[in-house]
Amino acid sequence: MTFHIHELRRAQADITNIAHWLVERSTQGAKAWLDAYDEMVGRLKHQADSCGAAMEHESFDLDIRQSLFKTRRGRVYRALFLIEGPDVYILRIRGPGQAPVEPDQLGI
Questions:
Q1: Distance between CA atoms of residues 31 and 24, nearest Å
Q2: 56 and 76 in contact (C-beta within 8 Å)?
Q3: What is the rounded average pLDDT of the residues 89-97?
Q4: 0.85 exceeded by the pTM?
Q5: Alpha-carbon distance 97 to 99, whole Å?
Q6: Closest CA to 29 of 73, 66, 63, 90
């Protein structure tokens, strides 16, 4: 099954904020991060239903899953998402050391 990927506004804001933070430190690092994010989205298109539950899963009445992706330097990021039929909704992107998302931080 091929899933249709949708990024919610808060996820888009997370992507923008992370990319801006990275570009201030390394333009190449920001590009590599965006490439890693795009690769993860490509995997979600075909394998979203094989991803496991996010640590936030128990705090919500929703089946929140996560897909991990990392940079060449090994920093792991998490994309939190929901599956509804053929649609995948990316809710938030969390970076290393960021606290789990609280219910009022999902924006859904």
A1: 12
A2: no
A3: 92
A4: yes
A5: 6
A6: 73
